[in-house]
Structures are given as structure tokens and as C-alpha cells.
Amino acid sequence: MPGYSALLHVDLSEGRTWTEPTEPYKKYIGGRGLNVGLLLKYLKPGVDALSPDNVLVFSTGPVGGTVAPSSARYNVSAKSPLTGFLGDSNSGGHWSAELRYAGCDGIIFYGRSPKPVYLLITDDGVKIEEAAELWGQDTWQTIDAIKEKYRDPEIKVACIGVAGEKLVRFACVMNEYGRAAGRTGMGAVMGSKNLKAIAVRGSKGVRVARPAEFTRVSERLVDTIRKSRQFDLYHISGVIGHRGVEDYKDSDTTVSLFFKPPMPGWGKLGGKEWWKSPWVKLKGCSSCQMHCSHFFIVREGPLAGVMGEGPEAETMGWITAIVGNFNRFLGAYGTTLVNRLGLDAIQMGAATQGLMTLYEKGVLTNGMLKELKAGWLRPNWGDPEVILSLMDMTAKRQGIGDLLAEGPNALARAVGGDAAYWLSAHRNMTAGNRSPQKGGVLNHLVSARGPDHLRGSPSLEFYGFTGDKRIGDDWNKYIGEPELFQHAVRLTDYEGKAALVVWQEHLRALSDSFGVCSFNYGNWPNTFIYPEDFAELYSAATGEDVTAKDMVLAAQRVLSMERAFNIREGWKRADDQPPERWVREPKEAGAFKGERVHLDKYNEMLDEYYVRRGWNRESGLPTRVKLEELGLTDVADELERTGKLG
Ligand code: SF4
Q1: Mean pLDDT score of the chain
Q2: What is the residue-wise DSSP string for 530-564?
Q3: Same domain, yes or no: 370 and 465
Q4: pLDDT of 384-416, one tens digit each?
Q5: Do 456 and 568 reside in the same domain of the chain?
Q6: Cα–Cα dist 53/42, whole Å
Q7: What's the gap between Cα 139 and its chain centre?
Q8: Fewest 10 Å CB contacts: which of 384, 467, 554, 603?
Q9: DSSP code of 615?
Q10: What is the CATH number of the domain that holds 340?
């Protein structure tokens, strides 16, 4: 069937590979949806995430590698060694397209190789190669060594750094020097399987069913994206373009955490300051007109000569402002360092921020630091030596880095007292305190992969209503409850947010499953792309005509499968509750002074969210009726067998 080719299975314990057609899995669309469908099928619940029993899946979607704008993304999924629930992360660049050109939609890894290996996929087939010489190398060295070995600069490599080898629970998978599948520790799962890299090189192209129609739809979407609100901003200054935007400062709760805004120097991290220096050149992923990434070289000061790609907004925030430093050159250097070591920049920044908070509050003393093998360390806000040293120590599990590598819960246990309160982890992951944004809070806490903003953080709430009549019309068309709109656009209201998050989650689930970038496709109302656009793309790619309603059902299927995965691993309603600090501490200053999460109102919003998802209002467990409507009778049967059906 056009749009789909084959899935590659790799048993690393046995050194055996085989393929099967992707088409039988088409109801999962691809990418994120396909991955969770395959995990439900092949992964037994309750296994240790770092054992050979974990299953690791990489896949792209039915339009990956085509002319569809930003059709550049892949998802990598497994049980997360950080959270113990669903692990899932997404990356761009050109690796995903190259995989499709080699005739492969996805790869499923089982077992553990007895020695370090990498996988090579070309037009001619698949090889499992020895990686003894690559083990211990950072991600850039690994990529360069593989390109050199095959004398082919066009080989695309996804790999792990030292952090993945050392099983740091938030190690990431890197591809093409600056592209990270950052969250939930998929790099550690690769490391646990002795899998250093996946190198791909293909030339077969991607077949679509109706090329002229597919091109027409793609061109229209390019036009839509070019006219989007964020196109010029991201295109010129990248996602950190936000950081210079005046009206963003107070609402940017990602970075403000429990800091007291205004934060002097914040605007200098991005926007105009950034593109003066060290910015050099725009970079984009496959088939993307946005070019939101930037190649940079630091040309002055003690860090002169450092080069790299990015930084993405979160990376910059967690390396600098969140840990109390406002030097953009430090942000640039730190970005390259975490990328080379193979660490999730957000969780690494959170580990640093956590230590600094505990030290400031007096919970962590100099005596304790000595006991934790960090007698020299004084984790004072903003100290660049501390910020950079902790990255290196964590990746290599040296000294206190061995503890930080386990995630915030281990640090809280080791320090004791009220450390857990100050660290505010959620399922052993850290998210910025979003307490003023009530939809943002809901989205973070119900996100199947753990708290972050990429699973349905509502842009409408974040940026506010622009007055564009189309946005209100969209609301009435897709959500259909006009009385909720006035609340949905107000950041601090609870009403209307469950409906908004559900809608936003659908767009993100479709983007991630199609293999396209959610900056462009899942970012309503900055970009006006709808389920009917996904339906047109899918129909032209595969030749199977589907409707917007089919696409909404497909998105609901992804969300319900992800919840089912977590339920099998022991999820309960308590796992969707906010950290205590978000509830008890109001913002101390800024435009949202006094805002916090009100537990009763949050839980009313959560009840409504469960109902809108077709899950049980009290327990949050999916119901048989809903699962059967989504064609997931097998999932309903399994949940019923284990007493976990709603
Ligand atoms: S918008 Fe940015 S991250 Fe997304 S595909 Fe384009 S260049 Fe890559």
C-alpha cells in the first residue's frame, strides 16, 4: 500500500533481523501511534525498563520523507527508565526521511546484544556491526566515525553518547549533531541493549498513491505555514525568538518556575540579541520551510570557537535562566555539551535547578554534599562552573552525578527532609511550574509520557485571543460549545480548559503519528491546520480515502492506547495530580502574582477531561464503550482481565 513499506525487527540477543509489512498496522497511522500500538503488542507489562525485556521502537509516519512540509520527524518509544511508564520522544533532522528512503518505516529492537553494536540499514539490506571502537565516544565523534568508515557524508546516524552507555535515566537519542529525541530516557534504553547507533542510507524514495493531489495539498500547507503567526519569528530567530518578545515574559512560566519575575537579562537570551551573535546560519529539517534551527559559533570570550546547533527554547532556558545565569554564550556552550554527552537538556537543567533550590533552602548542606561525593560543590544560583560540571559528572555518573542520573526522586530520598516538596517532580520527571496556566497544568499532568508541553499545551491560552474572528469560528466548529470560548482564552480560568486540551492533544497526536512537525501542524491557532488537512494528506499518500472524523478517531485511539499502556504499568488517578508545591505556593510577583493551582478546581477540570476522553470520570480508566468505538476491543479485553477497565 503506498504510504507504507516495511517494519524491521531486530533481535539483538540473537543477532537476527526480519521484516513485516507496515500496512496491517495502518489504523495506528504511524510514528507515535504506531509505536504505542507495537509496545502494547510486543512488550510485557512490568518489565525492568533497563532489562533486555524492554522493547524499543523507532518509527516515522505515512508522509515521512515526502514533500509534505516538515515531514521530518520520527518517534522513539519504550518503557521509560525515568518514569516507569510510557517512554516516548520525537526528533527531526533528516534521519527519519533517510530511513524511509531505505524502504523502512520503523525498527523494533528486542533483547540485548552481548557486545556493543550499531545497526546499518541501506538499500542493500541490514547489518548488525561491532561498535567496540565507538563505545565511549560522544555523539559527534560517533557520527563522524561512521561517516568516515563508509566514506559517505550523507549517511544519517541516530546514536547515544556516554550518558546512554552509562544508563543515565534521562539520556537522549541524538541525530545529526543537533537533533535530540530528548525526553524519557530512550538513550538509556539503547545503552541497556548495547546499541550505540543506527546508521541509515537509502535512495529508494517514497511512493505516494496520488502524486499530483499530494503535491497540491502539500503546497497549500506550505502556504498556510508561511502565513502562520510564528513563521517569521521562528524562521529568523528560532524558537528562542520568544525570548526577546516583551509580552511573553510574564506568562512564560516554563522559565520563571518559582523565580520572582521580572528576571533581569531574560530578553537578552533570545530574539535580537541572539541573532546578532553567535548565530551564523539557519538550518532546517527535511522538507521544512520554517528553518527554525540555527548553526552558531561563539566568536568571543573564553568560549570562543564553540559551535553547534540550536539552542531550542527549552534548552536555552534550562541551561541559563532557570539556573540563574543569563549568559547566552553559556547557553550555546551548554547546548553543545549536553548534545555531545547525550543528555536531555530539560531534565539535566532540572537536576541542576533542584540542587540549587535545595542548597538555597538549606535542605542540602555542605556536610551532605560531602557525603554525596561532592564536597567541593557549592550549588549557588548561576555559577557556570557548577552548571557545566554537573552535566559532565551526570553523564559519566561521577560523584554526585551518579545520584542525579537516577532522576529527582532519588535525590529527594538521599537528601531527605522536605526535599521532595522543593523538587516538585511528577512521575520522576520535572516540569516548569505552570500554575497560572490552568490548561497548561492539565496538559502537563495528564501527558502519558510525563510532564511537558509538547503533548497538547494550548497555545490559545498561552498567547491569548488575538481578536482574529477565525479563532472563535474554529472553536465553534471543532469544539462546539461557544460559551466556553471566553474562558478558554483566559490563562487563569479553569473553565473551557479540558475541552481546549483535548482538541490540542488531537492535533499533536496526529502530527506525531504522521511524522510531521508539531510546531507547524499541532500549534493551533498559531497555524490553522485541521483534521481535514491530515485527512487529505493521508488520502493522497495512501490512496485510501479518509475523513476528518476518521482522523479525530485516530487521534483519540493514540491517546487511549497510551493511557492503556500506563494503566498496565500501574498508573492510577494519583499519578495525574499536581506536585504539592504548585498547590501551596502562589506566584510571588509579576502579572500572575498570587496564582497557584486550586486542587478542587483542578480535579473538577480533570473529571471533565476524563469524560471528554470517554474514560471513567472518577478513576480515569478507559471504558469498554470508548475502546470498542476506537477499534481497540483487544485492549478493552486485556484491561478487563486485569480489573483495570473503567
Ligand atoms: S519547524 Fe523546526 S523543528 Fe520543526 S521540522 Fe521545521 S526546522 Fe525542524
Answers
A1: 92
A2: -HHHHHHHHHHHHS----HHHHHHHHHHHHHHHHH
A3: no
A4: 999 999 999 999 999 999 999 999 999 999 999
A5: yes
A6: 10
A7: 19
A8: 467
A9: B
A10: 1.10.569.10
Candidate of 75, 290, 523 to mutate for ligand 1, largest count of ligand atoms within 8 Å of Cβ:
290
Which of the listed residues 186, 201, 216 is the one where a domain comes to its end? Answer: 201
Distance 290 CA to ligand 1 centre (A): 6
Which domain CATH number covers 472? 1.10.599.10
How far is the centre of ligand 1, averaged over its atoms, from the C-alpha of 277 (Å)?
A: 21
CA of 425 to the centre of ligand 1 (A): 29
CA nearest ligand 1 atom 8, residue: 285
- The alpha carbon torsion through 106, 181, 554, 63 (nearest 10 deg) reads -60
Ligand 1 probe mutation, 71, 234, 293, most atoms within 8 A of CB: 293
Residues 39 and 167 in one domain: yes
Is residue 149 one of the residues assigned to a domain?
Answer: yes
Flag whether pLDDT at 245 surpasses 80: no
Q: Cell numbers 523494533 label which residue? A: 108
Residue 220 lies in a domain: no
pLDDT one-digit tens code per residue, 136-172: 999 999 999 999 999 999 999 999 999 999 999 999 9
User: How many whole angstroms from 291 Cα to the centroid of ligand 1?
Assistant: 6
Interval between CA 517 and ligand 1 midpoint (Å): 6
Contact criterion met (CB below 8 Å) for 298 and 306: yes
Instruction: List, in sequence order, the alpha helices (H) in 65-201.
Output: 95-101, 139-149, 162-165, 186-192
Beta bridge partners of 107: 8, 58
Task: Locate the ligand 1 atom nearest the alpha carbon of residue 73 and give its number.
Answer: 5
How far does the centroid of ligand 1 lie from the alpha carbon of residue 522, in Å?
A: 12
- For residue 391, CA distances in Å to 120, 121, 402, 517 come to 30, 32, 11, 28
In a domain, 297, yes or no: yes
Residue of 90, 288, 512 best suited for mutating to test ligand 1, as the one with most atoms within 8 Å of CB: 288
Measured in Å, residue 482 CA sits from the centre of ligand 1 at 33
Provide, rounded to the nearest whole percent, the portion of the chain with pLDDT above 90: 78
Confidence at residue 171, expressed as pLDDT on a 0 to 100 scale: 98
> What is the mean predicted confidence (pLDDT) over 448-470?
86
Residues in the chain, overall count: 646
**Tens digits of per-residue pLDDT, 371-380?**
999 999 999 9
- C-alpha distances in angstroms, 507 versus 150, 223, 459? 40, 19, 12
Q: What total of structural domains would you count in the chain?
A: 3
Residue of the nearest CA to atom 5 in ligand 1?
A: 70
pLDDT on residue 246:
39
DSSP secondary structure string for all residues of 437-486: -HHHHHHHHH-TTSS-GGGT--HHHHH-----HHHHHHIIIII--HHHHH
Distance 162 CA to ligand 1 centre (A): 26
Q: Which atom of ligand 1 is nearest to the CA of 93?
A: 8
Q: Is the same domain home to 45 and 77?
A: yes
User: Same domain, yes or no, for 133 and 261?
Assistant: no
Closest residue by Cα to atom 4, ligand 1, is: 517
Q: Which atom of ligand 1 is nearest to the CA of 283?
A: 7
Do residues 121 and 230 both lie within one domain?
A: no
* Same-domain pairing of 527 and 635: yes
Distance from the alpha carbon of residue 97 to the mean position of ligand 1, in angstroms: 13
How confident is the model at residue 271, as a pLDDT?
62
Higher pLDDT, 635 or 280: 635
- The domain that holds 108 is classified in CATH as 3.60.9.10
Q: Comparing 323 with 10, which gets the higher pLDDT?
A: 10
Give the range of the structural domain holding residue 85, as residue numbers without chain letter.
6-201
Is the C-alpha dihedral spanning 171, 326, 314, 434 positive or negative?
Answer: positive
Distance in Å, CA 170 to ligand 1 centroid: 23
In a domain, 215, yes or no: no
User: Which atom of ligand 1 lies at the shortest distance from residue 239's CA?
Assistant: 2
Domain boundary among the residues 132, 166, 201 is at 201
Query: What residues does ligand 1 touch, defined as CB less than 6 Å away?
Result: 70, 72, 92, 284-285, 288, 290-293, 517, 519-520
